[in-house]
Amino acid sequence: MIARELMIPGAFVFEPEVFPDHRGSFVSPMQASEFVKAVGHPPFFVGQVSHSVSRRGVVRGPHYTRTPPGVAKYVYSPWGKVLDVVVDIRLGSPTFGHWESVVLGSETQCAVYLPVGVAHMFVALTDESVMNYLLSSEYVPDNELALSPFDPELGLPVPDDITPVLSPRDRTAPTLAEAKSAGLLPHYETSMDIEAALCPW
């Protein structure tokens, strides 16, 4: 497995080796030893595992969790193809307001680690695109927030060759500036402290 840190501090991409044969293929998108080497601490306790299936053009996010409590995520796409986007919305972060994208899917089986406090968005590039999520805590609706994927200040990479399909919540989500004015954005230092406490061993 090859790991590399993204421009966003604390976010990583993991590229596992895929073993194909006449039966199909085998891959391990999460390996604790490689996670420790890259991130510097063991993987978080998994509080919830979820997956979504999306048709081409679906845009989910950017979503983030109120911090505190915050949540860390490990995501990958075992089937289909998605443009996965990490957005740094942590006030005080050296890359606040910046984003980085990675193509995930069945071809590469790459995974992305999203630390506490960042926002996550993806765009389904093919029909039946599957996303798997390992979360450090269970989903609590009141703690889940969203930003507009069309915020001109962020300039997120929604491809021009798709017709975006969004939920009502995502379509009416606030811009980064509006969320900041409303006091809804996480702070970098708080996020880092919560991240460190996820793995106390």
Secondary structure topology:
Layout: E1 2-5, E2 12-15, E3 18-21, E4 24-27, H1 32-39, E5 48-54, E6 59-65, E7 73-79, E8 81-87, E9 99-105, E10 111-114, E11 119-124, E12 129-135, E13 144-146, H2 168-171, H3 176-181, H4 188-198
Antiparallel strand pairs: 1-2, 2-10, 3-4, 5-12, 6-11, 6-13, 7-10, 7-12, 8-9, 8-11
Number of domains: 1
Strand content of the residues, in percent? Answer: 35-45%
The tally of strands reads: 13
Multimeric organization: single chain
Strand order of the largest sheet: 1-2-10-7-12-5
InterPro entries: RmlC-like (IPR000888), RmlC-like_jellyroll (IPR014710), RmlC_Cupin_sf (IPR011051)
Family: Belongs to the dTDP-4-dehydrorhamnose 3,5-epimerase family.
Protein name: dTDP-4-dehydrorhamnose 3,5-epimerase family protein
Pfam family, one: dTDP_sugar_isom
Task: Write up what this structure looks like.
The protein has four helices and 13 strands. It has 201 residues and is of the alpha+beta class. It has a single domain (2-16, 33-198), classed as Jelly Rolls, CATH 2.60.120. A hairpin with a 2-residue loop joins strand 3 and strand 4. The chain starts with a strand and ends with a helix. The model has no long low-confidence stretch (mean pLDDT 96).
